[in-house]
């Protein structure tokens, strides 16, 4: 029995969340005295595939099939399930990313596997195979014990971290049959909303809400983000009003993120917004209302007018 980790590529590159998933899978493989194999689908250069060895993947199955260059849920799930069978893998690990959320349940169904999505810690092996995960949109944690022979774990980005564990990686071409019925929806082109830092993977995020009054005031948010090397985000009403692109909307109905630092400017902290950001490591809130609910979950809070506070932070950052 062995562990298989799916390594999601974007434009032929792996993101940090992939290296986290590999590190996590390697830690489990080591505990179980077994091998770790990675599976990559799409067009990825050998040099990039070899990077996976730094985090403990001794073998990489490389599925370089033109039809699979862009993500197709059903076909990717079928290929990963085939790889699991080929490798006799009883545990499949992947990142709980946007595509991971669609893949994990499909793989679980194909392999008749138990599934934990949103995992935040290594399984507790002494207590069955008990995995801690987020629940109720990040408001609580739950422990799920997997009792099935096959298991699928989707790891939350930024929950486990990257751990180096260098091994020599062997790249093996894997060419499973792809059914035409699995290719009914084909992504022909992906147009990125922005070429700045990708929000789901960002370590630092500067976010703003309706308190900013209008889209013309986002210059200072972008400037602060640029100075910090952060991605920008926003609350739902802001994207609903087309002040900002929908790709920036975080929360229950938007993207769920867990950066190391989340700066919320002029956002009230409604429960639906917190659902997508409360697992951030450090939360800084800037709001002129001391009763704003966001302060209850903030690590640092500044009660003040964003139009005075944010330019001061920008000036201080520029002075250093
Ligand atoms: P507001 O609630 O209007 O808050 C603006 C804040 O700015 C206030 O706290 C105010 O004190 C402060 N402020 C005003 N002026 C200044 C100033 N000059 N300086 C500093 N602070 C200032 N929302 C999401 O964000 N994400 C979601 O995914 C989401 N999903 C939802 C799903 C459902 C089913 C529902 C019903 C709602 C959802 N919402 C979501 C909406 C959510 O309930 C809130 O309405 C929304 O988050 C409020 O956005 P806001 O904080 O930007 O605006």
From TrEMBL:
<keyword id="KW-0249">Electron transport</keyword>
<dbReference type="Pfam" id="PF01012">
    <property type="entry name" value="ETF"/>
</dbReference>
<dbReference type="InterPro" id="IPR014729">
    <property type="entry name" value="Rossmann-like_a/b/a_fold"/>
</dbReference>
<keyword id="KW-0813">Transport</keyword>
<feature type="domain" description="Electron transfer flavoprotein alpha/beta-subunit N-terminal">
    <location>
        <begin position="3"/>
        <end position="190"/>
    </location>
</feature>
<feature type="binding site">
    <location>
        <position position="210"/>
    </location>
    <ligand>
        <name>FAD</name>
    </ligand>
</feature>
<feature type="binding site">
    <location>
        <begin position="266"/>
        <end position="273"/>
    </location>
    <ligand>
        <name>FAD</name>
    </ligand>
</feature>
<comment type="similarity">
    <text>Belongs to the ETF alpha-subunit/FixB family.</text>
</comment>
<keyword id="KW-0274">FAD</keyword>
<dbReference type="GO" id="GO:0033539">
    <property type="term" value="P:fatty acid beta-oxidation using acyl-CoA dehydrogenase"/>
</dbReference>
<dbReference type="GO" id="GO:0050660">
    <property type="term" value="F:flavin adenine dinucleotide binding"/>
</dbReference>
<protein>
    <submittedName>
        <fullName>Electron transfer flavoprotein alpha subunit apoprotein</fullName>
    </submittedName>
</protein>
<dbReference type="InterPro" id="IPR029035">
    <property type="entry name" value="DHS-like_NAD/FAD-binding_dom"/>
</dbReference>
<dbReference type="Pfam" id="PF00766">
    <property type="entry name" value="ETF_alpha"/>
</dbReference>
<keyword id="KW-0285">Flavoprotein</keyword>
<dbReference type="InterPro" id="IPR014730">
    <property type="entry name" value="ETF_a/b_N"/>
</dbReference>
<feature type="binding site">
    <location>
        <position position="287"/>
    </location>
    <ligand>
        <name>FAD</name>
    </ligand>
</feature>
<dbReference type="InterPro" id="IPR014731">
    <property type="entry name" value="ETF_asu_C"/>
</dbReference>
<dbReference type="InterPro" id="IPR001308">
    <property type="entry name" value="ETF_a/FixB"/>
</dbReference>
<dbReference type="GO" id="GO:0009055">
    <property type="term" value="F:electron transfer activity"/>
</dbReference>
């Amino acid at each position: 029995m062995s562990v298989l980790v799916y390594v999601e590529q974007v434009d032929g590159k792996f993101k940090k969340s992939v290296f986290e998933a590999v590190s996590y899978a390697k830690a489990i493989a080591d505990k179980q005295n077994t091998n770790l194999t990675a599976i990559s689908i799409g067009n990825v250069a050998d040099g990039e595939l070899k990077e996976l060895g730094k985090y403990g993947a001794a073998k990489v199955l490389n599925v370089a099939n033109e039809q699979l260059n862009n993500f197709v849920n059903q076909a990717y799930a079928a290929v990963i399930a085939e790889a699991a069978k080929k490798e006799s893998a009883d545990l499949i690990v992947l990142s709980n990313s946007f595509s991971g959320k669609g893949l994990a349940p499909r793989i679980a169904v194909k392999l008749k596997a138990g599934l934990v999505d949103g995992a935040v810690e290594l399984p507790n092996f002494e207590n069955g195979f008990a995995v801690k995960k987020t629940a109720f949109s990040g408001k609580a944690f739950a422990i799920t014990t997997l009792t099935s022979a096959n298991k699928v774990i989707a790891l939350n980005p930024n929950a486990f971290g990257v751990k180096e564990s260098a091994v020599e990686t062997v790249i093996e071409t894997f060419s499973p049959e792809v059914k035409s019925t699995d290719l009914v929806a084909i992504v022909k082109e992906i147009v990125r909303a922005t070429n700045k830092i990708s929000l789901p993977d960002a370590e630092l995020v500067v976010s703003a809400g309706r308190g900013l009054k209008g889209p013309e005031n986002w210059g200072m948010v972008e400037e602060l983000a640029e100075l910090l090397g952060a991605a920008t985000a926003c609350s739902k009403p802001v994207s609903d009003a087309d002040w900002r692109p929908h790709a920036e909307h975080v929360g229950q109905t938007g993207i769920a993120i867990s950066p190391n630092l989340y700066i919320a400017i002029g956002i009230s902290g409604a429960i639906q917004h917190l659902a997508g950001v409360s697992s951030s490591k450090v939360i800084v809130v800037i709001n002129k209302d001391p009763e704003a609910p966001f302060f209850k979950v903030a690590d640092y809070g500044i009660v003040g007018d964003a139009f005075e506070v944010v330019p001061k932070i920008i000036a201080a950052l520029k002075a250093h």
